[in-house]
Amino acid sequence: MPKLHELAHCRAGDKGNTSILSLIAYRAEDYPLLAAQVTIDAVARHLRGIVEGDIRRFELPALWALQFVCARSLSGGVTTSLALDAHGKSLSYALLEMEIPVS
Fold this sequence. Notes:
Blueprint: E1 8-15, E2 18-25, H1 31-37, H2 40-46, E3 55-60, E4 65-70, H3 90-96
Antiparallel strand pairs: 1-2, 2-4, 3-4
């Protein structure tokens, strides 16, 4: 099974205690696979213990991208957390380590 970093890159942003992960396919032909396999449930399983709140997913097919809004994922938020990665930038790398089945 390939890892996501073989098919896509990822950017992370933050707002309070919410992390926004944008997963962007390198090639248009890989977007349908990402859309089918990188579901909210799959992301929640992969990031369990980090994302404590709801995850919302938005599809941006014209950009070959999926965006995940992950609530309660930054240990209280950038200005209130003593976490080493207060902005959650490493979450993009954690997501890219996810393996997906290819049929």
